[in-house]
Amino acid sequence: MQCTVSTNSTPGTFGIMSALITDSVSGLYCSAGDFFVDPWQPVARAVITHAHGDHAHAGSEAYLCAAPCEPLLRRRFPDAAIQPVPFGEGIDLGGVRVSFHPAGHILGSAQVRLERGGEVWVVSGDYKRAPDPTCAPFEAVRCDTFITEATFALPIYTWDPAAGVIGEILEWWRANRAEGRASILFCYALGKAQRILAELRGRTDEGLLRGDAASAGQGRVLLHGAMAGFTDVYRASGVALAPAERVGEHARGRSLAGTLVLAPLSARGTPWLRRFPNPSIAFASGLMRVRGVRRQRAFDRGFVLSDHADWSALLGTIAETGASRVLVTHGWSDALARLLADRGLETGTLRTAFEGELGELAAVDPEGT
Amino acid sequence: MKRFAALYDAIDRTMSTNAKVAALAAYFRDAPPGDAAWATFFLTGRRLKRLIASASLRAWAQEIADIPEWLLGECYAAAGDFAEVVALLIDALPAHAREPDVPLAAWIHDRILPLAATDEAEQRARVTAWWRGLPRNERFLLNKLLTGEFRVGVAQTLVVRALAQAAQAEPTAIAARLMGDWTPTADWFSSLMAQAHTADPSRPYPFFLASPLEDPPETLGDRSEWLVEWKWDGIRAQLVRRAGEVWLWSRGEELITRRFPEIAAAATHVPDGTVLDGEVLAFGGGRPRPFSALQQRIGRQRQLAQIMRAVPVVFMAYDVMERDATDIRTRPLEERRAGLIAIVAHDGVLRVSEEVTAPSWDALSALRDESRARGVEGFMLKRRSSPYGVGRRRGDWWKWKIAPLTVDAVLIYAQPGNGRRASLLTDYTFGVWDGDTLVPVAKAYSGLSNAEIEELDRWIRRHTRERHGPVRAVDPVQVFELGFEAIAPSTRHRSGLAVRFPRMLHWRRDKPASEADTLETLKRMASLNRE
Ligand SMILES: [Zn+2]
Ligand SMILES: [Zn+2]
C-alpha cells in the first residue's frame, strides 16, 4: 500500500488507524503526547532531531533535544526553553515514552523513538552510516514504523570512504598552494565544515596545518565568518578540530595565497570572494557525485562528501529496523517509497518545507547567512 | 586507458584554459604514440561508429544492478547522462579485482572494435566484465567510447595548441595536418610530431575565425583601416584547387564537393595551386536565401539534379590563402584581396563577396539596420593589414552581428509537462516588468538541462504561492535569459506583444528579479525588428 501525504493537506493519519504520529500543517504531530517532531511553525512543545535549519525552527515555547544537540540549538535560539535529554534515556510525555538515539548526521543529531502500548515509531531525522569523528555513530533502533529521510535515495548515490575524499581535498589544496592560489571549499556551515576540520586534524602529519613562520602562513585553514560560531560550539563540546581562524576583516591578496578556506555556498558570487588571489573553487557535497551538476555550476572540483545515508545505507538501515511500515521524507522520497512498496512494505511519503543538502544549490540556501 | 582517463579528469577538473593545454601537451609528449593517436582522434571530435546502443548498456546495467527500469529512469533524471548513470550504478556492486592497465590503443584494437563481430550475448558478457574490472572514471569513458558519445569540454584550437607544444611546432602546421582524412596509428602520430611533411593535395588550411564585436565599432579606430563585407548566412567553406582537382571542405572538416557540383564545375576555371575561403550560399533572384533553403542541399544526395534547380547556390569568396601554389596567409588582407579579385569574377557561381563602402561607422550602423531585410546577419569587419590567422584570435576579424533578440524575464507560472516529463513542472511562463507588476510575455519549454529542470522543479514546489488547477503561481524570484526568433505587436496578448519560438538560454542566478527587463524594452525591440 502506498499513501502520499502532502503538507498542504489537512492533518492526516497516513490512512493508518491509531497512528502514533500524524501529519499536520505544522509538521509531524504526536497527539497522545501532545508534541511535534521538527515542526516548521511555532508550537507549544517541539522535539528536535538536530539543529539544521530545516529541522529546528524558531519560536516554539519549549524544545526537547538530545544532550549534545543543546549547545547548537542554544546558539541558534539563545532565549528558548531547551530541555536536553541524554542519548538512550527515556522520558514520559503524556504516556508516550520518548528517547533520543544517535543518528550520525552532525553533532547532537538524533533519531527520536516513541513508544506507547508496545508500539514503536522512530523518526530518523537526517542520518548517515559512515564514520564521522564529530558525532556519535548511528544506532539502529528496532521499530514498527520508521520515518526515514531519502535525500540521496537513488542507486547512483554510493559514497566512497571519507578518508579517500579528504586525501583528494589535500591533494587539490597542495597543488593550489604550489601555484600560490587560495583553495575555496564551499560546504554546509553546520556539520560539513566541522567534519572536514576534524578529518583534517587527523592528517596533520601531512605537514600542512602548522602555519609556521617557515611556510609564511601557507597551509593555514581559514573560516568564513558564518561558520565560526558553530565551529566554536563544536570545540567547546570537546570535538577535536584542526586549527582554523576566521578570515580577517582586512586580509586580502598575497597574505591569503595558499590558504584553504571553508565557506558557505551563499558566499559565492559575493564581494567577499574577491579578496582571494586567483582562487580555485570547490564544493563538498553528496550532490557532487553527479558530474553534470558540478560542471553546470562551474566548480573547479567537486568532492563527494555527504552527511546523509547513501542508497545502500538507506536500504540496509530500513531492513535493520525491522519496520513493516516506512514513511519517507526529503529528496528522492517518491523513488524510495515506490521501491519499498514494490518489496511489500507499507509506505508513504511526507513533503517537507526545505530539503537539507539538496537545497544547498537552490537559489535560497536555508542555512547560508 | 588509465593515462587517458587521467587526462580526461585533468581537463574536466579545471576551468582554466592554460591548465587544460598543459595537461594535453604533457599527455601528447609522454603517452605511447599509438595511444596519443587515438586520443587525438577523440579529442578532435572524431568518433568510432557506434558499436553498442546506449539502450543495451542501460539494459545490462539495470540487470546487474538489479533495479527496476523506472528507477533507472529516476537516476537518469538526476544525472542527465546514461553513460554516467551506468558507471555510477556499478559502484554499488562488490568490486572485482582490478585488471592491469590496458593501453588506449590496445583497448580500441583488441577489445572495442572486435565487438562488432560478436553477438549480443557475447557483447554483454565482455562489457559487463570490463565494467567490474575498471575504476569508475575508466568505466565512464569506456561507455562513452562504446556508444560513440565521447565529448570533452575542450576546444579544438586548444588541442592543436597542445599538440604544437608537444611537437615544438607551429600550431598552423599541426592544424593543417589535422584537417581532412587520417588514420590514428602510431606511425601517423609520430610523423605528426616529427613534422615529416608529406603534403596531401586536398589538405585545406585551418579556418581563421572572427570574434563577436561587443564594443561600439568606433573603438576599432579609423574606418578606412577596415574592410567591411556583409555577413552571409550559409556554410563556411574552403575551395581547394590543386593537382588538377577540386575539393570543397566545410568548417566541420567535411568534404562536401559532391553536394555542390556546380561549385566544383565552376572551380575548374580557377588556376591550379589556389585555395579560397568563402561561403556556400543559397542564392536566387539576385539575393541570398535563408539558411533553411540551403539545408535542403545538405544531406540529400538523391535527385540532386532536381534539388539543384530548386535551390541554386553560389560560392561567395572572401579570401585567398594560397596562390600559385604558395601559402600567402601572412601577406596583408589588402594584397590577398587584390589577388582574389584577379581570380574570381563579380558574378556567376563563383563570385567575390563585395566590399561594403559606406564611408563612416555611422553610415555603416544605419546600413546594418537593413540586415534582416537583405537576408544577412550583419557585417564582417576585417583589418586591411591582417594576415590570415588560425582559429579565433581576437583583434583583426570581427563579426558585427545584428542584435540577437534576448530578454531577461522572471518565472511567474509553472505547470507539468507532457509525456515523460509529466511528473515534473517543465512548462514555464515568464513575465517582464510593467511598472511594478509582472506581465506574462512568453511560455517556454526548452533550453534547460535535466539537472536544472529537476532543481527548478524542487524550487517551484517549495515556492508555490497559489494553485489554479495544474498551474502554480510561484514567487517571482528566478530570472531567465530568453532568446526568440521574432517579436511583433499583437492584440491577442495581454502584453500587446507576440514572441516567436521563445527558448531559455540561461538561468540568470546572478540577477535579482528587480533587474529583469521591462515591457517598454520589449516594445522597442518589436518596433525595431519588424520584418
Ligand atoms: Zn540535517
Ligand atoms: Zn534535513
How would you explain this protein's 3D organization?
- The complex is a heterodimer of chains A (369) and B (531).
- Chain A is α/β, with parallel strands linked by helices.
- Chain A has 2 domains: 2-157 and 308-368, Metallo-beta-lactamase, Chain A (4-Layer Sandwich); 162-303, Rossmann fold, CATH 3.40.50.
- Chain A has helices at 70-76, 162-178, 192-201, 225-236, 291-296, 311-321, 333-342, and strands at 2-5, 22-24, 27-30, 35-37, 45-47, 62-66, 81-85, 91-93, 96-102, 110-116, 119-123, 145-149, 183-186, 221-223, 245-246, 260-263, 280-284, 301-303, 325-329, 346-350.
- By secondary structure, chain B is α+β, with helices and mostly antiparallel strands.
- Chain B is 37% helix and 23% strand.
- The model of chain B has no long low-confidence stretch (mean pLDDT 87).
- The structure holds zinc ion (2 copies).
- The site of one zinc ion has 6 residues of chain A, from loops.
Run of helices and strands of chain A: EEEEEEHEEEEEEHEHEHEEEHEHEHE
Low-confidence stretches of chain B: none
Termini Cα gap of chain B: 55 Å
- Write down the overall geometry of chain B: globular
Please sum up the structure shown:
The complex is a heterodimer of chains A (369) and B (531). Chain A has helices spanning 70-76, 162-178, 192-201, 225-236, 291-296, 311-321, 333-342; strands at 2-5, 22-24, 27-30, 35-37, 45-47, 62-66, 81-85, 91-93, 96-102, 110-116, 119-123, 145-149, 183-186, 221-223, 245-246, 260-263, 280-284, 301-303, 325-329, 346-350.
Key terms:
heterodimer; A: 369 residues; alpha/beta; Metallo-beta-lactamase, Chain A; Rossmann fold; 2 domains; eight-stranded mixed sheet; six-stranded mixed sheet; 7 helices; 23% strand; disordered N terminus; disordered C terminus; B: 531 residues; alpha+beta; DNA ligase i, domain 1; D-amino Acid Aminotransferase, Chain A, domain 1; OB fold (Dihydrolipoamide Acetyltransferase, E2P); 3 domains; seven-stranded mixed sheet; seven-stranded antiparallel sheet; 20 helices; globular; binds zinc ion
